[in-house]
Amino acid sequence: MESDLSLGKRHREVGGLLGVTVSRADFLNQELSGKAGDSVPLYGLRTFADLFTDRQVTALTTFSDLLVEVRKQVIEDAMAAGLADDGVRLRDGGKGASAYADAVVTYLGFVVDKCADYCSSICTWHRSGEKVRNTFARQAIAMNWDYAEVNPFSSSSGSWNSMLSWVFKAISHLPADGCADVRQKDARARVRESSDATISTDPPYYDNICYADISDFFYVWLRRNLADIWPEECATLLTPKADEMIANTHRSASKKKAEEHFESGIAKFMQELSVKQSSKVPATIYYAYKATETTEDGKMRSTGWDTFLQAVVDAGFQVTATWPLRTELATRPNALNANALASSIVLACRPRPRSSAPASRSEFVAALLSELRKTIEHLQSGTIAPVDLPQSSIGPGIKVFSGYAKVVEADGSSMPVSDALTIINETLDKILHGEDSDLDEETRFAHTWYSQYGFEPGPFGDADSIARARNTAIKSVIEAGIGESSEGKFRILKRSELDPKWDPPSDSRVVAWTALQHLVKRLQESESRAAALLERLVEVRDSARELAYLLHKIASDKEWVEEAFVYNGLISAWTVLKAKWHYGEQLAAKFEET
Fold first, then answer.
1. Beta strands per DSSP E along 291-353
2. Integer angstrom CA distances of residue 341 from 460, 551, 573
3. Domain range summary for the chain, segments of one domain joined by +
4. What is the DSSP letter of 12?
5. pLDDT higher than threshold 60 for residue 5
6. How many H-runs (helices) and E-runs (strands) does the chain carry?
7. Quick check: 133 pLDDT over 50?
8. Stretch 145-165: mean pLDDT
9. CA-CA distance, 348 to 320, in Å (whole number)?
10. pTM of the entire structure?
11. DSSP state of 47
12. DSSP SS3 for 411
């Protein structure tokens, strides 16, 4: 029964009907292992060959076989165009017809790899794009029961022409002049052999992604197609894994040993980096790490970043600047209808001055509050998505922490990075919960009520107490269009209950809460309607944006997914909405001129 249910067997049976010979795909008979072998082997897909139908293997191996003929043809065409053939291969520094052909075939090998990504039985349907979604929609090979298949000879997504176009676009953006020295080796060894170097690195994410395991999917095709051109790079049957700097329990005897492998490795790497990094420029380190775990004392912490940032500080580095960069697609699977990170953060690191003084815990907290308040204002002015805000604040917080020789606790011990991150998050919460904001009184009331009751009704007595504490009255809150009271209860109006014809200039009392809720409602209808309203919110425009961040924080903490999603969406669209209203102003000006 198990044999009959095997998808791999089903694929081979279909292949037999098509007359496919198994020998053509021998290179795919390597077994899936590690993280790549977690899911699909349970369903009979044990080798790379099992991930493809034989029809797909036929197409991909045919494209691969043609690369040999392509190389011969490129050499002939290059020579006919006047490029001499000195017989020196590209890997040996050649610049003649043979080297040129090696380069062309290398790029075409990348095209085959991209085709493989879109031409396997793991591919699914991309709902929003109405097209095939590639194998690696996530950083894993995930089992699915109903795959989508492309026609490689069409002009649609996943076809040869489509993948060729993407590779061409990438090549066209590469520097066309100069020569780079590119070496494939352990990053620690590469840094060790360098001196006065400028280093930019995106370190592994602890145990989040097993890069080597999943890269084998592409490597088996590259090795088949490019081993003659790049023999040293394709010398092994699968990618090297033993020294990979991640906490991989698949290759370690226990979770503890996996963690020790990563932690000791990253510490040694940062020590090497601090010695070899040029003093003229900062080292730049990228990160986008959201995962957290709960410790025994109930505190939330991110193990990967505890470890990595501790290594940065222990190596004698000071974080001198941070920048959020938008790097992620909004249409990737884990971002659809979710609060997924959209940005990566760049840390700029320089050696900590020898003159740096220690600080007490209270001095660190005071300096942190001042720095984070300025940072949050700056990030919000740039309309960074709320879901990215806590992540973006780690850098400025560690900048303060790493500027001291050490932060001394009351008992005389040095504060570890894990405790510093906890303080950074607590300080961020204080700022994001509006304790020092300049919102109007009615909005501050609504913000507090929302954090306790959301849009559900609550006792009028509680509402009255909160209103008095916020220096306002329930009557003023109701007149501002925020909520209503009846039968001893108070509640905030839902967005579906708001007046669709509401116009700010005609309202005698426009507050940030009402403005924000109307903006969210209009954006759900169309960007144009939201942009038109944003243009008319002259006095409370900035306050409404600030409030969106505060409400997103509350909704995220309480796991109100839909609520968090709408506020995150509004901030993400803020720049687009501003552009639309500026464009409308320009059109109006031109209309008046004519």
1. 293-294, 300-301, 317-326, 343-351
2. 38, 17, 15
3. 2-174+211-218, 247-432, 441-593
4. H
5. no
6. 19, 13
7. yes
8. 90
9. 6
10. 0.64
11. B
12. coil
